[in-house]
Task: inverse folding
């Protein structure tokens, strides 16, 4: 069900994007985010980029479903499927890196939905040509008949300061889309390749030690590769980009922030989850196999029950606990 909803959402995003592109020029469009500008540039410039990115997104939306299907055939088949999926995703990412002339990956690689075209059409229909629409103040844009240029609409008199701030251009706004990410060379390129192939190496290690879920070897290998690639990338940016980390574009800072937050999922993976997160502290140190040693997450969900709003969070944790216990892709971030 989840995979179907995600794929349907991906298809709907493409329809929304086409609908917005067909709107008349008099309709004001939302100011695109750096991520949207960058991904739209590459998808429009290279049809191969669009196909590879679409393939990658589809695999990510269905990978947990494929793992569930493979698990019914046995653990060996399951891990073979996991490793195969990680290899295919890594190949797709390496191709995207090559198509963008050695630029780091962005997540997701396709443009995200930013505006519902129905809202834009409603804005246009609110103005009858005489009255001032209530939602936009003086939204009276006019197209000059000879030149075809449109005069900008007037701001709401009660919100002039916010209107002026919205019109201020930043350094990223005037840059061409492909300049929103710096190209990587040398150790920066090595860091990005390590980041891309890390899931493959981690999956192979998990397959190797699949008989011992509490073995620290796969977890240490995977975490060391991701942390090492992150530190190597930051070092390269400090040395190569003017101004160091302060000279990064908004898109680069957002991507670094996303990857930093994604590292928190290591608390829910492999040996760290099996040995620490899953069990009450310090009970698991005394006797991890005793019936009295309840799961830490279970105790948290029990404490949240019968409490307003927190009960919903407890229910979600309880539902996801089964996935964290039994499925590899439930905590995958790449």
Result:
């Amino acid at each position: 069900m989840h995979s179907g909803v995600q794929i349907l959402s991906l298809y709907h995003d493409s329809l929304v994007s086409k609908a917005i592109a067909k709107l008349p020029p008099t309709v004001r469009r939302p100011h695109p985010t750096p991520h949207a500008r960058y991904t739209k540039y590459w998808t429009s410039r290279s049809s191969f980029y669009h196909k590879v990115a679409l393939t990658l997104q589809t695999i990510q939306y269905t990978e947990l479903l494929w793992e569930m299907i493979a698990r019914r055939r046995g653990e060996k088949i399951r891990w073979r499927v996991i490793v195969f999926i990680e290899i295919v995703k890594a190949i797709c990412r390496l191709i995207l890196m090559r198509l963008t002339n050695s630029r780091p990956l962005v997540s997701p690689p396709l443009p995200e939905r930013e505006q519902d075209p129905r809202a834009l059409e409603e804005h246009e229909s609110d103005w009858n040509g005489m009255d001032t629409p209530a939602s936009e103040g003086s939204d009276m844009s006019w197209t000059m008949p000879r030149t075809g240029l449109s005069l900008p609409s007037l701001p709401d008199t009660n919100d002039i300061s916010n209107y002026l701030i919205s019109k201020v251009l930043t350094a990223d706004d005037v840059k061409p889309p492909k300049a929103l990410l710096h190209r990587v060379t040398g150790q920066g390129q090595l860091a990005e390749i390590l980041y891309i192939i890390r899931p493959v190496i981690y999956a192979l290690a998990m397959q190797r030690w699949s008989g011992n879920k509490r073995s620290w070897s796969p977890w240490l290998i995977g975490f060391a590769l991701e942390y090492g690639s992150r530190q190597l990338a930051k070092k390269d940016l400090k040395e190569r980009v003017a101004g160091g980390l302060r000279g990064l574009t908004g898109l680069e800072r957002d991507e670094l922030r996303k990857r930093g937050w994604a590292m928190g999922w290591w608390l829910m993976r492999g040996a760290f989850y099996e040995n620490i997160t899953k069990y009450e502290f310090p009970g698991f140190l005394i006797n991890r196999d005793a019936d009295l040693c309840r799961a830490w997450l279970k105790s948290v969900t029990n404490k949240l029950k019968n409490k307003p709003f927190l009960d919903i969070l407890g229910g979600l944790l309880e539902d996801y606990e089964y996935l964290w216990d039994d499925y590899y892709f439930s905590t995958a971030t790449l």
Summary: The longest helix spans residues 47-71. The chain has 14 helices and two strands. Residues 126-139, 280-295 have pLDDT under 50 and may be disordered.
